[in-house]
Amino acid sequence: MFVRPFRVKSSVQLKTSEKKKFRQLVESCFSNNPEIISVLPNKGAVLLTKLLPHDAGLGMVQVHSIDKVPLFVTLENDNVPIPTVHTLWKIPNLLPCVTMPYIVLDKLLGGADLMLPGIYPNSLPESWDTGDVVAVCSPDNGAALAVGVWVVSRAEAIANGLRGKGIYIYQVYQDQIWHFGNKEKLPNLPAPVYKSALEESEKTEDTETAQDTAEEETQGCVEPPTEDQGEDGVCNQECGGVEDLTHAVEEVSISKDDILLEACFRAIKTSVKKHDLPMLISTFYSQHVKHNCSEAVEIKQTRFKKVGVLMKELEKEGLLVVKEAKKGVFNITEVNFSHECLRRVKRLEKEEEGEEEEEEENIAVVQAFTCNAHVLPLFSKYGRKKGDIMLRKAMREHVTEYIRTKNLTNESNKKLVTLDPLLSSVMKTRDLTAPWNQIMQKVESNCGKCFVITLPDKFPITVKGDLPPIQFKVEKRTGNKKVTIVSNFEIFGIEAKELAQKLQHVMSSSASVVPGLKAGESNVLVQGDARRLASKLLLDQYRIPKTYVASS
Questions:
Q1: Residue 76 to residues 10, 57, 168, 540: CA-CA distances in angstroms?
Q2: Orientation of helix 531-540 relative to helix 496-507, angle to 10°
Q3: By CB distance 3.0 to 4.6 Å, which of 6, 154, 343, 442 could disulfide with 427?
Q4: What's the CA gap between 418 and 406, in Å, rounded?
């Protein structure tokens, strides 16, 4: 809900009577937990902020916060306050909790809701109804990562085989509500403990007679069949036991896929080094992936079935490059250690271990291409749509696959490709044949040009067209005094006010924020010639790639 920026309509401090009324409302909604009183003390100012989310259909949203910590979110026409992750960090047992793999957090930060296959089955509550508020955390840390509501009941989830949408996400760690507050780091809390439903069912069976047990196994229900049973012999009542849930869980294999992918991310981040490359894919899987798997998962139990298919999946995601050394032997030749999935795994691990040191991460700038109308006929065959962003590797894979599928490689000269009408149209040429490198260059030049900037702990930024470097311009003012104007830095996620403060400290002179040439653009004006020190600051502290900092 708050993944995209919102607009603040008003922000006022509650009066004593209003604060008392809201406190009573919270106590009534969470009467089963007396610790809720500690979140809203009698003393202390409560700030009420009214927001307009990016999705106008949600209406006005109220956020109650204390000391810049957002505690409760209330939707328009709904008088039930929903606790934020900050509140759940203070009272971990306030809401029922389910767990999910770490890699799902990226999808939630992208605005997706939590699907049922993305939830660990052993963390599902024994009962829930549509509209119940629920917390989402990781298996190793009890600190909530997200808060949402169930969109299906337990009976509907079982009937659907634990597939489809499960939880509508209201708030997630590191979304805009989190940035609106004090940006508190994820605490390290005891891991959630779930009572095994299967053990409970075994205890129940010990107290029942053998005849009742046989009837339960036959009918698949906890209670014996009643007159509500249909003619087909299936109980029409909702099954309250765990056998149906266990049966549904056995049919869901996507969660094992997530576990295996997560193990791959951890393996690349923790055990694979640059000097290990090239590495056999079998060595990578047996000696690295298996050792980083949180659960005993065999690749045959997943949708990949084979190690080669898993490597292709990782290659499509841009994590690594696999090449065939000789017939039937595949090596990992390159690894993208700055990939977003790897950085996310490492950051979560450091927070869970309670390390206070912040990871120094570079800003990654990758050239990419957009799928325009000219090349769309070719790339639409591989699920691409107009405006989609493709990395160079993915784009070349599509072109290579098309050529091999159509058997366009020249039999007499493998370096040449016979151009069919579609390739000729995309390349804008009338030649009958062309070498591989020329095809790739022509297709790249006819695609739209863009850059993807990956920022630490922020969402990637896409810039269409050329990416201008950060510029320094020295001007003379009255009295032959020099000033330096720094521009084009906001595209790299640098705030003008923050940069001005740092430059003022480094230069020991005044620095201010001034409007730029473009509408909404801000520049920083520094007294004196600050080119050398400003360049050093951007390279060392902000870790901007040297290519995108103008020479001083």
A1: 15, 10, 17, 46
A2: 120
A3: 442
A4: 10
**Which own/partner contact pairs does 210-219 have at CB distance under 8 Å and 24+ positions apart?**
216/241, 216/243
3-state secondary structure of 18: helix
In angstroms, the CA 68 to CA 182 distance is 6
**Helix axes of 392-405 and 436-446: crossing angle, nearest 10 degrees:** 120
pLDDT digits (tens, 9 = 90+) for 312-340: 888 888 888 999 888 888 999 988 888 87
Q: What's the CA dihedral at 534, 514, 364, 542 to 10 degrees?
A: 40
Q: What are phi and psi of 122, to 5 degrees?
A: -70, -10
Amino acid at 23: R
Q: Could you read off the pLDDT of 334-390 as tens digits, one per residue?
A: 888 888 777 666 444 444 444 444 444 567 888 889 999 999 999 999 888 888 888
The end-to-end CA distance of the chain, in Å, is 43
Helix (H/G/I), strand (E/B), else coil: 87: helix
Three-class secondary structure assignment of 240-277: CCCHHHHHHHHHCCHHHHHHHHHHHHHHHHHCCCHHHC
Question: CA distances (Å), 178 to each of 42, 68, 171, 227, 359, in order?
Answer: 24, 10, 9, 53, 20
pLDDT tens sequence across 118-152: 888 888 888 888 889 999 988 888 889 999 999 99
| DSSP secondary structure of 176-232 | HHHHHTT-PPPP--PPP----HHHHHHHHHHHS-HHHHHHHHHHTSSSPP-TT--TT
pLDDT tens profile 87-110: 999 898 889 999 988 777 777 877
Both structure tokens of 218:
């036959």
